[in-house]
Amino acid sequence: MNHPRSYRNEQVVILGLARSGVAVAKLFHELGAIVTVNDKKERNLCPEADELTALGISVICGSHPSGLIHEGVKLVVKNPGIPYTIEPIVRALELGIEIVTEVEVAYHVCQAPMICITGSNGKTTTTTWIGLMLEEAGMKPIVAGNIGRALTEAALEAGEDNTMVVELSSFQLKGTCDFKPQIACLLNVYETHLDYHGTMDDYIASKAKLLANQGPEDTAVLNWDKPVCRQIAETAKAQVLPFSIMEELDYGVFVRPSFAADVPSEQRQIVYRDKSGEDHLIVPVKELGIPASFNVENALAAVCAALTAGAPIEAIVRALKQFHGVEHRLEHVATKDGVIFYNNSKATNAAATIKTIESFEQNVVLIAGGLDRGSDYMELLPVFKDRVKGLVAIGQTKEKITNVAKLAGMSLVKTVDTANNVQDTVSEAVREAFRMAEAGDVVLLSPACASWDMFPSYEERGSMFRQSVHNL
Question: Disulfide check for 167: which of 146, 188, 224, 294 has CB 3.0–4.6 Å away?
């Protein structure tokens, strides 16, 4: 797309009245575009509408009117979650009208360099960790994007002395064209969001857009343990900085001894090997502020990004030790009668749940289930056989997940469904899991599913779990 100021006196349609839509609408309005904002929710469910109307911006709520997209529209900016199959998007594609997400708009107005992070799992933890590393280094980071704050709003505030640290989803990246971060981090790619993307090829292509426009002056931080990341590296034009927990790299950030070696975990050290082959010891793995092997992967990615941005090792080490995690991501809730409760509500796919279960040495009683996106969850079978003591299943997928548990030979299996009372469902699930557990066991909420069948967000699901644990 062109710079937003080039749309002065041109018609721009914004689809979706979330934080990003409001920020983009204000920007184009201030730059003189003729802005129409459309959201299919009813007006009383769009509290932002009045603010935009007061500014003189046209807001249409309650439906997508047939005449919304026409030949006079020059640009459509869509909320990332809106599928490409809805009528206004289909019509825009028919007319050859450019369709982007807020990320593309923010890129054109941002003066600060960008570090951008994507992946199926670990985005928020890694993004937060990088922000803390740069803070420790006095580098004035601004953390935004999928992590909470609208990227356009943050980008307009950023100066050349700031560094943008941006979490991005595949939904956001799919709607980019010229977007180019100075540092791009691709953490991993697992099968998820296929209800939106349709195929894994489209999902991978959307993730790969993070690196598509980078040049030799830029850096691509890639997980060398993941075949998809190695495949993408073959076409990358940027300098590739790899990280690995499974092998010692000729260049990059890795764990020594690796997780492939059968050694006590307290022996492992994070190491950066520079291009000259010199090793720089960063920190012992045991001193990281948050547990689990997948968080070691997140730590390695964050180290790569922070080193590339110019943060000194001592600042990076302080952040590695001080950061104790993000809400709803392997968050310790409480210990009751020797049973340890963890909230991992952000695990919205099976791969995230598997990694979390594998991070515990104790017996696990799992609470799982949620939105049915068509998976059979058979990938859970090995960890159910070897690592899970009991299962309490909730949500649309409860029967599918209990079927896997029974195939695994698990005897402690319960489903919970208390009609339409969501809090009662969560509370009963926690009580059932507590009954299955013994002192020393872990009760883990790690749903392997999105939350939208029962909850407005994974945060709400995690908060109800925390409350139910505290009420035991």
Answer: 146
> Does the annotation list 120 as a binding residue?
yes
Contact assessment for residue 254 and residue 243, using Cβ atoms and an 8 Å cutoff: yes
The reply, when asked if residue 20 is annotated as ligand binding, is no
Integer angstrom CA distances of residue 456 from 196, 421, 462, 470: 18, 14, 11, 22
Q: What is the pTM of this model?
A: 0.77
Task: Give the Å distances, CA to CA, from 297 to 114, 250, 253, 294, 355.
Answer: 21, 18, 10, 5, 11
End of a domain among 67, 100, 133? 100
256 plus 134 within the same structural domain: yes
Q: Structurally, how many domains does the chain consist of?
A: 3
The CA distance from 458 to 442, in Å, is 20
Q: Is 125 annotated as a binding residue?
A: yes
Euclidean distance between CA atoms 217 and 434, whole angstroms: 54
Instruction: Supply the DSSP symbol for 456.
Output: S
The response to whether 124 counts as a known ligand-binding position is yes
Residues 128 and 73 in one domain: no
Q: What are the tens digits of pLDDT across the range 47-63?
A: 889 999 999 999 999 99
Is 119 flagged in the annotation as binding? yes
Is 32 annotated in some ligand binding site? no
Q: 3-state DSSP call for residue 353?
A: helix
137 and 205 in a single domain? The answer is yes
State both tokens at 420: 């339409």
207 annotated as a binding-site residue = no
Task: Tell me: pLDDT of 149 over 90.
Answer: no
Cα-based distances in Å from 258 to 33, 263, 305, 336, 348: 55, 9, 21, 35, 28
Closest CA relative to residue 400, chosen from 436, 442, 364, 372: 372
CA distance 215 to 300: 23
pLDDT tens for 220-273 read 999 999 999 999 999 999 999 999 999 999 999 999 999 998 888 789 999 999
Residues 6+ apart with CB under 8 A from 114: 107, 163, 164, 166, 181, 182, 183
